Amino acid sequence: MIWIDRFALFSLLDMLAVGLLCLAWVGIGWRIEHPSPDKPSLSRLMARYRREWLIQFVSRTPRMFDAQMLSILRQGTAFFASATMIAIGGGLALIGNTEQLAGVATDLTLVRAPAFVLEVKLVLMLIFIANAFLKFVWAHRLFGYCSVVMSAVPNDPEDPAALPRAHKASEINITASRSFNRGMRSVYFGLAATAWLFGATALILATLLTVFVLWRREFNSQSRAALLDPADGFGA
């Protein structure tokens, strides 16, 4: 009964705003990973180039470039994993001391919210950030697996095991990239969730803005147009 009474502090608009946030997070993620064949997403186009990378890797000598590329990918995932871990720590610290945050929220919204309400809003943000942390950690580990499999690819293009192992490495690389992208989307929606501190309307607007930014980058960006350029015979 106590929990029911506490959640009565949230309005129907609050519930709808949170529902929209979760639905948008799942929906845009599914659309990016399952685009229509005639309008591929930027992530799907990059997956093609990752496969092509590992095909070229078979005959490339020396392979220092490929080692550097994997190192850069792992450094990126490690950086974001560290950043999200710091964000989680900061969020937990805020939950333990909501008085100062309540003062800021009151000044901006002119509405005094109970500490429990602010704590729930912070927990929602932390859920997205925690999910991002787990995705980044898994992506980092998968890039490590990819480097091991790539090391097992024979240096002889005529070796019958060369292309099959390169294909396995490319699929692991793509899976790692997918996990990294999911982590990034969680960060975006975690940032959108912080808008709930300023009210349900702010959360709805932040959610719509986040969806627009993600859609534009994946389906209507200059980088996507560059990858679709058929000049190299591969992007078309």
Shape category: elongated
Please, what is the average pLDDT? Answer: 88
Number of DSSP strands? 0
* Largest sheet properties: none
Structure in words:
With 236 residues, this protein is mainly α. It has a domain at 41-199. Helices cover 79% and strands 0% of the residues. It starts with a helix and ends in an 8-residue tail after the last helix. The mean pLDDT is 88.
Task: Spell out the blueprint of helices and strands.
Blueprint: H1 2-7, H2 12-33, H3 42-59, H4 64-95, H5 98-109, H6 115-151, H7 162-193, H8 200-219, H9 222-228
Helix pairs in contact: 2-7, 2-8, 3-7, 4-6, 6-7, 7-8
Considering the chains and any ligands shown, give keywords for the structure.
236 residues, mainly alpha
Quick take:
The chain is an all-alpha fold and 236 residues long. 79% of the residues lie in helices and 0% in strands.
